[in-house]
Amino acid sequence: MTTGGLLVSTGVAQLAAARTSQGRAHARRVGLGTAITLLTIDLIYVPRGRIRPAYLLDAAMQAGWISAWLRAASAQSAGE
After folding, report:
1. In sequence order, what E strands does the chain have?
2. What is the DSSP string of 22-34?
3. What is the pLDDT of residues 43-71, one digit of tens each?
4. How far apart are CA 80 and CA 75, in angstroms?
5. pTM (predicted TM-score)
């Protein structure tokens, strides 16, 4: 429940920040950091048997979010 609460708080902060161009960049950094952290946890703790193998599906989703955040950053840089 703690992790879920932290992720909801992060999402709310991202939505609030995204009203300006600087805010969008901040939201991307927070999203990228969150996705990298969750991916790392999944890739470390599944092989150790600390969390279920189903979390590898979460790892795949986090990789997708990382890709999306990086593409969004590239698209904004190209548009500036």
Report:
1. none
2. HHHHHHHHHHHHH
3. 999 999 999 999 999 999 999 999 999 99
4. 9
5. 0.87
